[in-house]
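The instructor's notes for this session suggest beginning with a concrete chain rather than abstract definitions. Hand out the sequence below and ask the class to guess, before any prediction is shown, which regions might be ordered.
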Amino acid sequence: MAAKQQTGEGTMIVVLKSGNTAQDIEHVCMKIRKMGLRPHVSKGIERTIVGAIGNEALLKVDQLEAIQIVDKVVPIMKPYKLVSREFREDNTHIKIGNVTIGSGAITVIAGPCSVESREQLLQTAREVKKAGATLLRGGAFKPRTSPYSFQGLGEDGLKLLALAREETGLGIVTEAMEPSVVPLVARYADVIQIGARNMQNYPLLKAVGKVNKPVLLKRGLCATMNELLMSAEYILSEGNHQVILCERGIRTFCEFCRNTLDLNIVPAVKKETHLPIFVDPSHGTGKYDLVIPMARAAVACGADGLIIEVHPNPEEASSDGDQSLTPKNFAKLMKELTPIAKAVGRTL
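After discussion, reveal the predicted structure:
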């Protein structure tokens, strides 16, 4: 960030008065472009603002304030500009079919770590939908620690996910691992996942920032909150504002589970950004018997959704069987979440 500050890179927000029209907004955007800056529009419930991104030295504040519809021009002080509450006070809502993420209802994504076969995926999809899941997860491209581990079925896996969507109506969440596969994944997926290992893969972040698909951005293994939000900023700066953050556990001194599920970040993120945040207790714990209690805790502390690994036969899973719930245990979890969601003013 030091280099950006030296070149004067930053964001000013142009706050518009109420009663503005689409023509008014475009007029402000045109002025910003003429100054050599990039405009980003954010329409909230009570106000509309236009971010002016680029070299602040080029910004002519007096010219913008002279526009009748402009209320004021103020700088965003956070290092993450478009992601910050300063840029957008209202929570971002992301619509995927009949599902609206960030609106108050808890969104549950469930499914296997890896797409293994038609039978495995369709059985899982039917079971998680019956239990109340609203989106289906499944990896077609799998980033694995060992080069000898199962790497996924590739496009064949994406085709099976599309088949599951056609049969069940569940939207599809699946991972893209490199920029070259983003167009292919976007063709099949309803939500593109960026895994923890790729949180700071900046070419990949820019690539998903250019597509009109929601992005589920997982926190890196050792990433701070600021680093997570700056990664989200890469996506928003390319024009895609449909970003869902995801806490999936970080590396600490913990030796009794796979990762430490950092639920502190949920309320902290809510304070800093307008973007929704999910929790992944499957990767966060690495043990199926810890998934249910940590999922309950995630809902209680304000998460907008969960992503849960479910497999019809975890013992036979090609990956992450030890942290996968059976369909029976997943149904048990969904029943337990209902009163907790109600207690914190949410629905399931």
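Then share the key points. Residues 1-7 have pLDDT under 50 and may be disordered. Residues 94-343 form a domain with the TIM Barrel fold (CATH 3.20.20.70).
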